[in-house]
Protein backbone atom coordinates (compact mmCIF):
# COMPACT_ATOMS: atom_id res chain seq x y z
CA UNK A 1 0.00 0.00 0.00
CA UNK A 2 1.39 3.38 -1.07
CA UNK A 3 0.66 6.30 1.26
CA UNK A 4 1.10 10.04 0.68
CA UNK A 5 3.33 11.62 3.33
CA UNK A 6 3.40 15.26 2.28
CA UNK A 7 2.85 16.66 5.78
CA UNK A 8 5.48 14.76 7.81
CA UNK A 9 7.68 16.93 10.07
CA UNK A 10 9.12 14.43 12.58
CA UNK A 11 10.17 10.79 12.15
CA UNK A 12 11.33 8.63 15.07
CA UNK A 13 12.61 5.09 15.06
CA UNK A 14 13.59 2.52 17.63
CA UNK A 15 17.04 0.98 17.26
CA UNK A 16 17.29 -2.71 18.14
CA UNK A 17 15.33 -5.11 15.91
CA UNK A 18 13.81 -2.09 14.12
CA UNK A 19 16.43 0.14 12.51
CA UNK A 20 19.41 -2.10 13.27
CA UNK A 21 19.72 -5.47 11.57
CA UNK A 22 19.82 -8.63 13.65
CA UNK A 23 23.61 -8.47 13.64
CA UNK A 24 23.43 -4.93 15.01
CA UNK A 25 24.30 -2.97 11.87
CA UNK A 26 22.78 0.29 10.69
CA UNK A 27 21.37 0.41 7.15
CA UNK A 28 24.28 1.47 4.93
CA UNK A 29 22.24 4.21 3.26
CA UNK A 30 20.84 5.75 6.47
CA UNK A 31 23.14 8.79 6.62
CA UNK A 32 22.13 9.85 3.13
CA UNK A 33 18.48 9.75 4.10
CA UNK A 34 19.09 11.80 7.26
CA UNK A 35 20.75 14.49 5.12
CA UNK A 36 17.86 14.38 2.67
CA UNK A 37 15.28 14.69 5.45
CA UNK A 38 17.14 17.64 6.93
CA UNK A 39 17.06 19.44 3.59
CA UNK A 40 13.31 18.82 3.49
CA UNK A 41 12.90 20.26 7.02
CA UNK A 42 11.95 16.89 8.48
CA UNK A 43 13.49 16.07 11.86
CA UNK A 44 14.83 12.54 12.31
CA UNK A 45 14.91 11.04 15.80
CA UNK A 46 16.40 7.93 17.33
CA UNK A 47 14.11 6.70 20.12
CA UNK A 48 15.99 4.19 22.20
CA UNK A 49 16.52 2.69 25.62
CA UNK A 50 20.20 3.46 25.10
CA UNK A 51 21.72 6.50 26.83
CA UNK A 52 22.48 9.76 25.08
CA UNK A 53 26.27 9.28 25.15
CA UNK A 54 25.96 5.95 23.34
CA UNK A 55 23.66 7.38 20.68
CA UNK A 56 25.90 10.39 20.06
CA UNK A 57 28.88 8.04 19.78
CA UNK A 58 27.07 5.97 17.16
CA UNK A 59 25.97 9.03 15.20
CA UNK A 60 28.99 11.22 15.94
CA UNK A 61 29.05 12.85 12.51
CA UNK A 62 25.34 13.68 12.55
CA UNK A 63 24.59 14.36 16.21
CA UNK A 64 23.93 18.06 15.62
CA UNK A 65 21.46 17.30 12.85
CA UNK A 66 19.45 14.68 14.76
CA UNK A 67 17.04 14.27 17.64
CA UNK A 68 17.77 11.71 20.36
CA UNK A 69 15.09 10.29 22.62
CA UNK A 70 17.45 8.45 24.94
CA UNK A 71 16.81 6.18 27.92
CA UNK A 72 13.22 5.72 26.70
CA UNK A 73 12.59 9.45 27.01
CA UNK A 74 14.56 10.11 30.19
CA UNK A 75 16.72 12.60 28.26
CA UNK A 76 15.76 14.32 25.01
CA UNK A 77 18.36 16.06 22.87
CA UNK A 78 17.43 18.26 19.91
CA UNK A 79 20.27 18.83 17.47
CA UNK A 80 22.96 18.96 20.13
CA UNK A 81 21.00 20.59 22.95
CA UNK A 82 19.28 18.76 25.82
CA UNK A 83 15.70 20.05 25.96
CA UNK A 84 14.28 17.72 28.62
CA UNK A 85 15.45 15.34 31.33
CA UNK A 86 13.74 13.53 34.19
CA UNK A 87 15.92 12.37 37.06
CA UNK A 88 15.24 9.56 39.52
CA UNK A 89 15.76 10.34 43.18
CA UNK A 90 18.82 8.87 44.87
CA UNK A 91 16.59 7.23 47.48
CA UNK A 92 14.50 5.50 44.82
CA UNK A 93 17.34 4.09 42.77
CA UNK A 94 19.20 2.89 45.89
CA UNK A 95 16.03 1.05 46.90
CA UNK A 96 15.79 -0.51 43.44
CA UNK A 97 19.43 -1.61 43.56
CA UNK A 98 18.84 -3.38 46.88
CA UNK A 99 15.69 -5.08 45.63
CA UNK A 100 17.26 -6.39 42.41
CA UNK A 101 20.38 -7.65 44.16
CA UNK A 102 18.47 -9.37 46.96
CA UNK A 103 15.28 -10.59 45.29
CA UNK A 104 16.01 -11.34 41.62
CA UNK A 105 18.55 -12.97 39.31
CA UNK A 106 18.88 -9.74 37.34
CA UNK A 107 21.84 -7.38 37.15
CA UNK A 108 21.18 -3.77 38.22
CA UNK A 109 22.46 -0.95 36.03
CA UNK A 110 22.28 2.63 37.23
CA UNK A 111 21.95 4.83 34.17
CA UNK A 112 23.65 8.10 35.10
CA UNK A 113 23.77 10.87 32.52
CA UNK A 114 27.44 10.36 31.66
CA UNK A 115 28.07 6.67 32.39
CA UNK A 116 26.42 3.43 33.44
CA UNK A 117 27.31 2.12 36.88
CA UNK A 118 27.58 -1.61 37.56
CA UNK A 119 28.95 -3.73 40.32
CA UNK A 120 32.48 -5.06 39.72
CA UNK A 121 31.15 -8.58 40.19
CA UNK A 122 29.34 -8.26 36.84
CA UNK A 123 32.34 -7.24 34.75
CA UNK A 124 32.11 -10.56 32.89
CA UNK A 125 29.26 -9.04 30.84
CA UNK A 126 31.31 -6.00 29.81
CA UNK A 127 31.76 -6.89 26.13
CA UNK A 128 28.05 -7.41 25.63
CA UNK A 129 26.91 -4.41 27.65
CA UNK A 130 29.34 -2.03 25.90
CA UNK A 131 27.15 -2.37 22.80
CA UNK A 132 24.41 -0.54 24.67
CA UNK A 133 26.42 1.48 27.20
CA UNK A 134 29.56 2.84 25.58
CA UNK A 135 30.71 4.20 28.96
CA UNK A 136 30.61 1.87 31.97
CA UNK A 137 32.00 2.45 35.46
CA UNK A 138 32.45 -0.58 37.71
CA UNK A 139 32.24 0.02 41.44
CA UNK A 140 32.49 -2.04 44.63
CA UNK A 141 29.11 -0.91 45.92
CA UNK A 142 26.37 0.55 43.73
CA UNK A 143 24.72 2.10 46.77
CA UNK A 144 27.76 4.33 47.20
CA UNK A 145 26.83 6.17 43.99
CA UNK A 146 24.95 9.45 44.18
CA UNK A 147 24.81 10.76 40.62
CA UNK A 148 22.16 12.27 38.38
CA UNK A 149 20.41 9.27 36.82
CA UNK A 150 17.39 9.23 34.54
CA UNK A 151 16.85 5.47 34.31
CA UNK A 152 17.35 2.28 36.26
CA UNK A 153 17.80 -0.87 34.19
CA UNK A 154 17.87 -4.54 35.04
CA UNK A 155 19.70 -6.88 32.68
CA UNK A 156 18.54 -10.52 32.64
CA UNK A 157 21.15 -12.81 31.07
CA UNK A 158 18.68 -15.71 31.35
CA UNK A 159 16.30 -13.89 28.99
CA UNK A 160 13.40 -13.94 31.43
CA UNK A 161 12.65 -10.21 31.59
CA UNK A 162 9.04 -10.47 30.44
CA UNK A 163 8.21 -12.96 33.17
CA UNK A 164 9.84 -10.74 35.79
CA UNK A 165 8.04 -7.71 34.38
CA UNK A 166 4.62 -9.32 34.63
CA UNK A 167 5.06 -11.08 37.95
CA UNK A 168 7.37 -8.77 39.90
CA UNK A 169 8.32 -5.35 38.55
CA UNK A 170 5.03 -4.08 37.17
CA UNK A 171 3.12 -4.95 40.37
CA UNK A 172 5.86 -3.52 42.60
CA UNK A 173 6.79 -0.36 40.71
CA UNK A 174 4.09 0.26 38.11
CA UNK A 175 1.99 2.70 40.13
CA UNK A 176 4.86 5.05 40.98
CA UNK A 177 7.16 4.68 37.96
CA UNK A 178 7.12 4.02 34.24
CA UNK A 179 8.21 0.40 33.91
CA UNK A 180 8.80 -1.21 30.55
CA UNK A 181 10.29 -4.40 29.16
CA UNK A 182 12.67 -4.44 26.21
CA UNK A 183 13.30 -7.62 24.24
CA UNK A 184 13.88 -10.64 26.51
CA UNK A 185 16.72 -9.19 28.56
CA UNK A 186 15.81 -5.70 29.82
CA UNK A 187 13.51 -4.05 32.29
CA UNK A 188 13.72 -0.25 32.41
CA UNK A 189 12.35 1.98 35.15
CA UNK A 190 11.91 5.72 34.68
CA UNK A 191 9.91 8.39 36.48
CA UNK A 192 6.15 8.08 36.08
CA UNK A 193 4.98 9.34 32.71
CA UNK A 194 8.39 9.02 31.07
CA UNK A 195 8.30 6.97 27.88
CA UNK A 196 8.93 7.38 24.17
CA UNK A 197 5.39 8.59 23.60
CA UNK A 198 5.74 11.36 26.15
CA UNK A 199 8.98 12.36 24.44
CA UNK A 200 7.18 12.63 21.11
CA UNK A 201 4.60 14.90 22.72
CA UNK A 202 7.36 17.13 24.11
CA UNK A 203 8.91 17.36 20.66
CA UNK A 204 5.53 18.05 19.06
CA UNK A 205 5.05 21.00 21.39
CA UNK A 206 8.54 22.31 20.68
CA UNK A 207 8.10 22.00 16.93
CA UNK A 208 4.44 23.13 16.98
CA UNK A 209 3.24 20.05 15.10
CA UNK A 210 0.44 17.51 15.56
CA UNK A 211 0.27 13.73 15.62
CA UNK A 212 -0.75 13.82 11.95
CA UNK A 213 2.70 15.20 11.16
CA UNK A 214 4.64 12.51 13.02
CA UNK A 215 5.82 9.03 12.06
CA UNK A 216 7.37 6.31 14.24
CA UNK A 217 8.81 2.80 13.86
CA UNK A 218 9.09 0.11 16.53
CA UNK A 219 9.05 -3.58 17.30
CA UNK A 220 8.47 -4.20 21.00
CA UNK A 221 6.85 -3.13 24.25
CA UNK A 222 8.84 0.00 25.06
CA UNK A 223 7.68 1.37 21.69
CA UNK A 224 3.95 1.11 22.47
CA UNK A 225 3.37 4.66 23.72
CA UNK A 226 5.36 6.14 20.84
CA UNK A 227 3.35 4.21 18.27
CA UNK A 228 0.10 5.26 19.93
CA UNK A 229 1.12 8.93 19.83
CA UNK A 230 1.63 9.32 16.07
CA UNK A 231 -0.65 8.89 13.06
CA UNK A 232 1.93 7.12 10.91
CA UNK A 233 2.87 4.30 13.27
CA UNK A 234 4.80 1.36 11.82
CA UNK A 235 5.94 -1.95 13.14
CA UNK A 236 8.52 -4.01 11.31
CA UNK A 237 7.45 -7.48 10.16
CA UNK A 238 9.78 -9.10 12.68
CA UNK A 239 8.03 -7.35 15.59
CA UNK A 240 6.45 -9.33 18.41
CA UNK A 241 3.09 -10.65 17.18
CA UNK A 242 1.20 -8.98 20.01
CA UNK A 243 2.55 -5.56 18.93
CA UNK A 244 0.51 -5.42 15.72
CA UNK A 245 -2.50 -3.89 17.47
CA UNK A 246 -0.48 -0.80 18.43
CA UNK A 247 0.54 0.26 14.92
CA UNK A 248 -1.48 1.52 11.97
CA UNK A 249 0.94 0.22 9.35
CA UNK A 250 3.59 -2.43 8.77
CA UNK A 251 6.87 -2.33 6.88
CA UNK A 252 9.51 -4.88 5.95
CA UNK A 253 11.76 -6.55 8.52
CA UNK A 254 14.81 -4.85 9.95
CA UNK A 255 17.07 -7.11 7.89
CA UNK A 256 15.18 -6.00 4.78
CA UNK A 257 15.63 -2.33 5.79
CA UNK A 258 11.93 -1.72 6.41
CA UNK A 259 12.51 1.71 7.94
CA UNK A 260 14.59 2.84 4.96
CA UNK A 261 11.88 1.75 2.52
CA UNK A 262 9.38 4.10 4.18
CA UNK A 263 11.92 6.92 4.48
CA UNK A 264 12.43 6.61 0.73
CA UNK A 265 8.69 7.06 0.17
CA UNK A 266 8.63 10.12 2.44
CA UNK A 267 11.57 11.75 0.62
CA UNK A 268 10.13 11.02 -2.81
CA UNK A 269 6.69 12.33 -1.82
CA UNK A 270 8.25 15.60 -0.67
CA UNK A 271 10.36 15.98 -3.79
CA UNK A 272 7.36 15.36 -6.05
CA UNK A 273 5.11 17.81 -4.19
Structural write-up:
By secondary structure, the protein is α/β, with parallel strands linked by helices. The chain has nine helices and 14 strands. It has helices at 15-19, 30-39, 52-58, 90-103, 126-129, 161-173, 196-207, 224-229, 258-272, and strands at 10-13, 43-47, 67-70, 75-78, 81-85, 107-112, 116-119, 136-139, 149-155, 177-182, 186-191, 214-218, 232-236, 249-251. Strand 12, helix 8 (224-229) and strand 13 (232-236) form a beta-alpha-beta unit. The relative contact order is 0.18.
Tell me briefly what this model is:
With 273 residues, the chain is of the alpha/beta class. The chain has helices at 15-19, 30-39, 52-58, 90-103, 126-129, 161-173, 196-207, 224-229, 258-272, and strands at residues 10-13, 43-47, 67-70, 75-78, 81-85, 107-112, 116-119, 136-139, 149-155, 177-182, 186-191, 214-218, 232-236, 249-251.
Any chance you could write out the topology, listing elements then pairs?
Layout: E1 10-13, H1 15-19, H2 30-39, E2 43-47, H3 52-58, E3 67-70, E4 75-78, E5 81-85, H4 90-103, E6 107-112, E7 116-119, H5 126-129, E8 136-139, E9 149-155, H6 161-173, E10 177-182, E11 186-191, H7 196-207, E12 214-218, H8 224-229, E13 232-236, E14 249-251, H9 258-272
Parallel strand pairs: 1-2, 1-12, 2-3, 7-8, 12-13, 13-14
Antiparallel strand pairs: 3-4, 4-5, 6-7, 6-9, 9-11, 10-11
Report helical residue fraction: 25-40%
Series of H and E elements: EHHEHEEEHEEHEEHEEHEHEEH
Number of alpha- plus pi-helical segments:
9
Distance between the termini: 19 Å
The description of the largest β-sheet is: 8 strands, mixed
Amino acid sequence: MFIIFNNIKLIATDMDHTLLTEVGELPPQLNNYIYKLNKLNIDFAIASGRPLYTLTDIFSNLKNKMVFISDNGGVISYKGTIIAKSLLSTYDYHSMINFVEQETDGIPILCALNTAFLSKQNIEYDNFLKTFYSKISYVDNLNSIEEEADKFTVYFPRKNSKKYFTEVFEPKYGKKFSVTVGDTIWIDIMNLGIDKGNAMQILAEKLDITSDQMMAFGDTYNDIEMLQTVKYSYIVKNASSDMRKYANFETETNDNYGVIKILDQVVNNKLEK
